[in-house]
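dumping this here so i dont lose it
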């Protein structure tokens, strides 16, 4: 089943001087897929995520999530749709410093009508799954960047979204923390079948995915599928980036 279908999506900025950040881009994501989006700075990667989430309006084209178009939604409908259908993981974690790890994780459940005890138990369960069960009562400044990012992933998954969107989730992490975070992404994808679309500039991070889509000048330039071992896929990704003229 298709979780996401992007049909000739276009986003143009400006009026007198127009810039096409996304240009007639089409892409489909099947249920349970784990896909990386790669491209140079300014290629349209983050703009694409913002279009999918409804944060930015399309100039033309359409986007369907589980067969439902995001076009024509009111601001309130769009907010509810994001809350119920999507999960988000950001480079800067976007956790609230005044809350504990557990309270941050359970935030998406605040609007579901569940009682506090149930929310706390679900937060504990997800913290344990992400390997931070012993940090549930800690504040954000008391944990490492990798632990904070795992809390962010737990928060994104706790309401069982149809699609997880991640924007440079390892961008602020050292290599060891990035590796652990990506292992958790893979585990969540495989065990919970969470369809995941991740923007990254890092080939090592992308090599954990099952498919990599390369974007250039707002268009799909190429895509490759992982068929062998991760190291082999990593080399294939680097080769495409070199061909594109990327770093």
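and the seq i came up w/
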């Amino acid at each position: 089943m298709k979780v996401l279908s992007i049909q000739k999506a276009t986003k143009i900025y400006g009026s007198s001087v127009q810039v096409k950040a996304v240009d007639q881009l089409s892409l489909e994501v099947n249920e349970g897929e784990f896909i990386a989006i790669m491209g140079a700075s300014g290629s349209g990667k983050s703009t694409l995520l913002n279009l999918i989430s409804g944060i930015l309006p399309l100039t033309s084209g359409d986007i369907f999530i589980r067969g439902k178009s995001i076009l024509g939604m009111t601001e309130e409908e769009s907010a509810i749709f994001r809350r119920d259908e999507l999960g988000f993981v950001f480079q800067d974690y976007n956790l609230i410093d005044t809350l504990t790890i557990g309270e941050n994780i359970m935030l998406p459940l605040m609007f579901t009508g569940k009682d506090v005890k149930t929310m706390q138990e679900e937060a504990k369960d997800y913290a344990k799954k992400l390997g931070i069960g012993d940090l549930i009562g800690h504040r954000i400044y008391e944990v490492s960047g990798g632990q904070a990012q795992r809390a962010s992933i737990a928060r994104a998954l706790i309401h069982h979204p149809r699609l997880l969107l991640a924007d440079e989730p390892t961008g602020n992490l050292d290599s060891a923390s990035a590796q652990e975070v990506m292992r958790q992404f893979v585990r969540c994808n495989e065990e919970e079948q969470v369809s995941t679309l991740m923007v990254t500039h890092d080939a090592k991070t992308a090599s954990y995915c099952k498919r990599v889509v390369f974007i250039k000048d707002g268009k799909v330039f190429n895509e490759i599928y992982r068929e062998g071992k991760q190291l082999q896929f990593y080399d294939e990704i680097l080769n495409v980036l070199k061909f594109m003229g990327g770093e």
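The beta strands are 2-13, 19-30, 34-38, 60-65, 68-69, 86-90, 163-167, 195-199, 211-216, 219-225.
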